[in-house]
Amino acid sequence: MPFRPLNSRMVEATVVPGQRLFSQRGAMLAYKGDVSFTPSITGGQGGVLGMIGRRVANEATPLMTVEGSGTVMFGHGGHHVHVVELAGETLYVEADRLLAFDGSLQQGTMFMGSQGGVMGMVRGQVTGQGLFTTTLKGRGAVAVMAHGGVIELPIRSGRPVHVDPQAYVAHRGDVRSKLSTAIGWREMVGRGSGEAFQLELSGEGTVYVQASEEKL
Amino acid sequence: MSSVNGPVVFDAHTLPADDNVNPYAFSVDLDGQWFLQKGKMIAYYGRIDFHGIGHGRLDRLIAHSFHSPLHAADWVVAEGRGKMLLADRSFDVNSYDLEDGNLTVRSGNLLAFQPSLSLKQSIVPGFLTLIGTGKFVAASNGPVVFVEPPVRVDPQALVGWADCPSPCHHYDHQYLRGVLGGVRAFTGLGGTSGEEHQFEFVGAGTVLLQSTEQLMADIPTGEVPDQAGVPHATPSNQPSMPRMPGQLGDLQRRFGL
């Protein structure tokens, strides 16, 4: 396991030769040993094509490659950090929430608009996700940033989880998300509860929720 | 502090003595004098007077433990008996004990200290050094992590260091090597990693890091007073005109001519 939480807002990563890490640029706080930080022109994996894909999808976040041998401490913007261990599943997360992740994970971009048609687009707007999201697949660990602490909510089939779109951080597993609305006449006359939109996640997996409605 | 069971009610006796009330507030059991930064006191019990630092009754105390004329305007002396609560914009607050030691801390992060410590300006701009024995209170953006050298630290994540030599700069431009690196250096394509510059610590001691590179708003302390013999970042005591041959040059300055 390459990431070790030091406190709620900081993780320590062990870097060994031959295994690289990706991290958000400028998120290194300190390091020991012989470690180099190289800006990743393509912003991750997949070469130039991957870069173009991310640029088009607006999922391009400035990343750097971390290589060498030693330990590196990461933290960014005072946000809470949550380490997610992946054992072959896929994590769906916004690129700007990625603090650092294993180079062994496969990075991809996914079109989310196909889930739910027009409502899918509205969902992208409300959650701030846009139409695309970043996927990380394989075996390894990801350090995800959130405003406030992170709560893991399991999703079982037949028991969907409803999440405030602003508090949604990431999800993993075989999960479908759709935006459910509870708009009635109260919302129309401006006396709504403020919870008109909810993200409904169903399937098998886990959703990560932050203890705040503030975006990063 | 069980925050789950609702708010805890404190009074003058149940407030902790020289300990944290919660991660963001510190309670000082005052019996005598403490130095504190202006505006960091949020409440107090008892009889406490706050004196500005200048000439007057406290002249001897200040002469003994306050050696930073630059900061005189930012600090006050709390005098009396009681419990005093310190906090700073809900940043994490911690107290540290020094035993015949020295610790250098970012000037904006230091909240208060006992007069048994003496405060001096560090030669590193923006930092203050505390020397002696006593307790002080410092804030940090996120919890503080202690690291032992050798370590290289993002300048913004540095809170302070104790007992080890002052840091030096470390520049890392390894990625500018090679063919791709040459293209990068030449065209500027690909950007920078943002981690080219660190403070490097070596030797025995402890380095204090905060959990983020977001600084607490700083109090400017980097400028040293414009006096003879004081090393300068901007050498204003150098002749502004280019030195002519035959001029006395450095000798002139050294003799104060």
Q: What would the principal axes of the Cα set say about the shape of chain B?
A: elongated
Instruction: State the distance separating the first and last CA atoms of chain B.
Output: 64 Å
* CATH-derived architecture of the largest domain in chain B: 4-Layer Sandwich
Query: Main sheet of chain A, how many strands, which sense, barrel?
Result: 13 strands, antiparallel
Poorly predicted regions of chain A: none
In terms of DSSP E residues, the strand content of chain B is 35-45%
CATH architecture of chain A: 4-Layer Sandwich
Give the CATH H-level superfamily of chain A.
Mitochondrial biogenesis AIM24
Main β-sheet description of chain B: 12 strands, mixed
Question: What is the overall shape of chain A?
Answer: elongated
Distance between the termini of chain A: 26 Å
What is the rounded Rg of chain B?
22 Å
The count of domains of chain A is: 1
Give the percentage of residues in beta strands of chain A: over 45%
Protein described:
Chain A: InterPro entries: AIM24 (IPR002838), AIM24_sf (IPR036983), Trp_RNA-bd_attenuator-like_dom (IPR016031). Chain A: It comes from Streptosporangium nondiastaticum. Chain A: This is AIM24 family protein. The complex is a heterodimer of chains A (216) and B (257). Chain A is mainly beta and 216 residues long. Helix content of chain A is 12%, strand content 54%. Chain A is built from three helices and 13 strands. In chain A, strands 1, 2, 3, 4, 5, 6, 7, 8, 9, 10, 11, 12 and 13 form a 13-stranded antiparallel β-sheet that branches. In chain A, a hairpin with a 2-residue loop joins strand 1 and strand 2. In chain B, strand 8 and strand 9 form a beta hairpin. The longest helix of chain B has 10 residues. At the A-B interface, strand 4 of A face strand 11 of B.
Q: How are the SSEs ordered, and which strands pair?
A:
The complex is a heterodimer of chains A (216) and B (257).
Chain A lengths: L2 E5 L2 E6 L5 E4 L3 E12 L7 H10 L6 E12 L5 E14 L4 E5 L3 E6 L5 H11 L4 E15 L3 E6 L5 E3 L4 E14 L3 H4 L8 E14 L6
Antiparallel strand pairs in A: 1-2, 2-5, 3-5, 3-7, 4-5, 6-9, 6-12, 7-9, 8-9, 10-13, 11-13, 12-13
Chain B lengths: L18 E4 L2 E13 L3 E12 L6 H7 E2 L7 E13 L4 E15 L3 E4 L3 E5 L5 E14 L4 E3 L3 E3 L4 E5 L5 E4 L6 H10 L9 E5 L4 E4 L40 H5 L3
Parallel strand pairs in B: 4-8
Antiparallel strand pairs in B: 1-2, 2-5, 2-7, 3-5, 6-9, 6-12, 7-9, 8-9, 10-15, 11-14, 12-15, 13-14
Organism (chain A): Streptosporangium nondiastaticum
InterPro entries (chain A): AIM24, AIM24_sf, Trp_RNA-bd_attenuator-like_dom
Protein name (chain A): AIM24 family protein
